[in-house]
Amino acid sequence: KQAEKAVHQKKEQSKTKCRKARRRHINLVAEFNRRQRKNIWLETHIWHAKRFRMIKKWGYCLGDSPTEKSYRACYRAMTKHCLLQDLSYYCCLELTGKETELLKQLARICNLDAGLTFEEACCLSGRFEGSLNLYRADRYPEDMLGPVTFIWKPGDGSENRHLWIWMHPSLKQDILRELKAIFQCSGPDEIHIPEPVVTSVQEEKQMDVVLSLGKKRKKEDKEGEKAVPVKKIIGDGTRDPFQCYTWISQATGVVISDRTMEILRYRLIGPLSHSVLTETLKAASLQTV
Known about the structure:
Elements: H1 2-9, H2 19-22, H3 25-35, E1 40-41, H4 45-49, E2 52-57, E3 60-66, H5 71-80, E4 83-86, E5 91-98, H6 99-106, H7 121-124, E6 130-135, E7 144-152, E8 160-167, H8 172-183, E9 198-199, H9 201-211, E10 230-231, E11 246-248, E12 255-258, E13 266-269, H10 273-280
Parallel strand pairs: 1-3
Antiparallel strand pairs: 2-3, 4-13, 5-8, 5-12, 6-7, 7-8, 9-10, 11-12
Protein name: POP1 protein
InterPro entries: Pop1 (IPR039182), Pop1_N (IPR009723)
Domain Pop1 N-terminal: 4-97
């Protein structure tokens, strides 16, 4: 019995691919997607994973503390150079509709006695970003939801405006529920799932041919056309990909859209931040129709 038991417990021989096969782009994307089923990665995840201890919070995989003693380097960058932080895990809700209707309903969840509101002139023009505390509708100074930051899209002369509200992922569900209530927004009857970005094996082969011009031809994948295409993950750590992400009000025409992980957000700290932006970003030329 012991001999039979040992035979059954004998492990099968490992069938893992060689490192060259594992490091192919299509295999890497499939492996990364598999590891993001529970916790979503930021765009800068690979860079942080090599240098930070990662933690899993709010549905994301975030860098917590550096593995090396880099506190002096960070302080030096903040005081003399430029330090960049990835804040893409913050959630973004986009409100679209008439300016008067937006301001009328948003006034119910904030108060002038607490400081800045959505009607501040410098923020309403879209030149500056504002920050305030949100409360449940008509419940100030009780039932505070939490702090948020907002920015208006500069107007183009029409009465329709765009407003982006940024909040911590732990506050998203409560604030989203309150916004849908005051604007009387509801989701569509049918769940809308956007088409995933598919990278086929044929496209990968075409890219390899283009990149390998003048070089040694690479061997074709053994799986060939039977290989499963790689799908890009849809959604974020705070949103189920099978849930709707747009809510429309039939009464007011206001549209609430969840733009989390669609609009990336970075913070630059230091005296050279403006110089870095001017060297990195190039102003687009204005085109009038």
